[in-house]
Design goal:
By secondary structure, the chain is mostly helical. Helix content is 74%, strand content 0%.
Length: 95
């Protein structure tokens, strides 16, 4: 038994609509990814995506900020290497 023509057309139309919605979601995620890659902070991404809170942005896109931890660790290591080690500081006289 073949489905009625109207049902087939409705199913095809529904599939197209799902593809459009999926494409829109992918574009939003891509926009957020590019913003994070460009160094945008969480609040900027939050406003760009229209989220009510930065927590919501982090809940959704937290995986995008993981690379930031590596970059932060590298920058901290560079900063610390420029500072004299504590052992080489002059002794402080006790009162």
């Amino acid at each position: 038994m073949r489905p009625a023509r109207g049902l087939t057309e409705a199913a095809i139309g529904g599939a197209r609509l799902r593809r459009v919605k999926m494409a829109a979601a992918a574009l939003r995620h891509t926009a957020a990814s590019l913003a994070v890659s460009a160094g945008a902070n969480v609040k900027a991404v939050q406003r760009m995506m229209g989220h009510q809170s930065a927590a919501m942005t982090l809940d959704i896109y937290t995986d995008l900020f993981d690379d930031d931890l590596d970059a932060l660790a590298d920058r901290l290591e560079q900063s610390v290497s420029k500072v004299r080690p504590i052992a080489s500081l002059p002794a402080v006289a006790s009162a």
